[in-house]
Amino acid sequence: MYSKHLISVTALLLATAACSAEDSGDGSGGATGVGGQIGTGGLKAPTGGSGGSTSTTGGVATTGGTLSPTGGTTGGTPISGGAPSGGTPTTGGSSSTGGAPVAGGAPSGGSGGSIAGGPSGGGGASGGTPSSGGSGPAASFKCENLTLAPSTTGVAKPAGAAGGLKVLDWAGFKGAASFTFDDNTPSQMANYNALKATGGHVTWFVVGSWLSGSAGEVSKFKATLADNQEMGNHTYNHQSNGSQSDLQQAQDFIKTQFGVNANSMAAPNCAGAWAGVAPMVLFQNRGPCGGNVAAISPRDNTDPFQLPAYLPNTGESAANLSAQISAGKWRIYVIHGFDSQGGTYQPVPIASVTGAMSKAVMDGYWVEGMSAVGAYWQGQKLIPTSATTTATWTLPSKFPPNQCLRITTTGGTVTQKGMTIPWDDHGYYQISLDAGEVTVQ
Ligand SMILES: [Zn+2]
Fold this sequence. Notes:
By secondary structure, this protein is an alpha/beta fold. The chain has a domain at 172-373: Glycoside hydrolase/deacetylase (TIM Barrel, Alpha-Beta Barrel), CATH 3.20.20.370. It has helices at residues 2-19, 24-37, 95-98, 186-190, 192-196, 208-211, 215-224, 244-258, 318-322, 350-362, 370-380; strands at 60-62, 66-67, 141-142, 148-150, 166-167, 176-182, 202-206, 230-233, 264-266, 284-290, 307-310, 330-335, 366-367, 390-392, 404-408, 414-416, 419-420, 423-424, 428-432, 437-440.
């Protein structure tokens, strides 16, 4: 299964490179080399329950977007290749409530569910198979920003003294990379399958007026949301001097056309004027952009409304793109497309992009959309490093719902709002940011 899949990906990449004579020297090496190693990654069944099958992606297991210790409807959707039944535990708590999204974490599941079963729908061998009936309320909430998990599994629950609360950097990955694509240019959907096959997730920053009337393109972009790709706001009219009304118009357009709320924006032309407009509608903004901008560190003081993004040169190689990623940091990329159709700005060969994405996944980086990573980055800072057994917080304005953090402890039981949070054998507890508090006791 791995090899067939990888061969097809490699063939696609090579074909793409071959079709573009000017770029063939850049993209093929990195992409092909990466492809050959993906198989060493996601060896563990990424989904909960008996249906969990192999993952065809490297280095990343897919976990459920819903954290439900009672079984229920956790598990989520394999990125690709996973058995469709994965994530449907055969037993467990009340499935009618177990997976229900509960903002703020009202008790659900209750007596039937074991808190040991199927944390986050992942958990490899134990995922989705409650070992015993638990007692007391169990937490149930969505973790929409944590649909990817590190490939490590089988990590034992900390058994020492209660305390030692610590938020994992970058959701337990080596670092983070957000590949964002602007302007809904023609080559984006044309190359979507290659992007998806990397196992990473991306962000589309679409321009409302440029998509309006293109029902075909809208439906293609919309279909990618089922793969956990992100729809972002690149305004309605793509002006450098922005207005709240233009930003809101795009927000409304996205809601109407795609059925989702955009959480992040990307300033058109990376213009600085938008940094003051974005907070009125969204919780973060991308820009400035350039070839020499900083990557972001955990707990650093980067302005969430001026998130720096790396802008590749035309035709840049996979190796150059990969060189922008470093351990412990979050790199955001701004890319406009993969060929020059429609005057696409500074196109980068698809093989360069997929090569860099695949390598990042294989190397253990969190290749995820900008809002998911940004919510984690902002959320982590809400829990001070001095906290050991408890913390409380208030979410920033416009902060998206259903976002979570991954924490470890030295031992004890982790609760939120009186509900027990299950240990996930990828090596953490997933806690809800909506809950506003966490306790280790
Ligand atoms: Zn743009």
